[in-house]
Write a structure and sequence with these properties.
The structure is a homodimer.
Chain A lengths: L2 H42 L6 H18 L3 H31 L1
Helix pairs in contact in A: 1-3, 2-3
Chain lengths: ~100, ~100
């Protein structure tokens, strides 16, 4: 690899690392929000999943992805991946509450 | 659901939607960077994957996740999920270059 290419690779990787740090912190904040949603749903006895909400999120994120030059299919896969984790959290919160009521 | 809970859910979802918009735009920028890395690697004949780089990314993101209160396992899953997409891109860029050299 030429020295210019090596330098170019180092610069690009520094940008990727900065972006990843930002995304990790945003995901941390997203899970703080979804944990609060999970607690609220468990308190109100609402189901962990909400197909209407998810459909509107998919539509919106695909549209935002198109605007920003991201593959809309990837944006949808990302949302599905994240929602699966959220639902796993919601179910464990709901199970926790069930556990409490049994005590 | 009580009116207070409904309002609380609406507010939390507005935050989640804002965070998702930010993440989508960051991912768009991340893929702009990784596409440039892909083009550079294809030009230099470097392999699409780089296990040392990936190991150091996993270590760093797990550490950032711990600091920000995100489950480190989720951070690692997110990175793996993103890198899989990137490698798919790199391979298709490399295949495109191979195609050009055959013409």
């Amino acid at each position: 690899m030429t020295m210019i290419s090596r330098q170019e690779l180092t610069e690009l990787r520094a940008s990727i690392d900065n972006i990843d740090a930002a995304v990790i912190h945003l995901l941390a904040e997203r899970f703080r929000c979804t944990k609060a949603v999970g607690a609220l749903k468990a308190r109100e006895g609402l189901p962990a999943t909400d197909p209407n909400r998810e459909a509107s999120q998919v539509k919106r994120l695909r549209s935002l992805a198109s605007l920003s030059g991201l593959d809309p299919d990837f944006a949808e896969k990302f949302l599905t991946f994240t929602i699966e984790e959220v639902i796993r959290h919601h179910r464990s919160i709901a199970d926790g509450l069930d556990g409490q009521t049994r005590v």
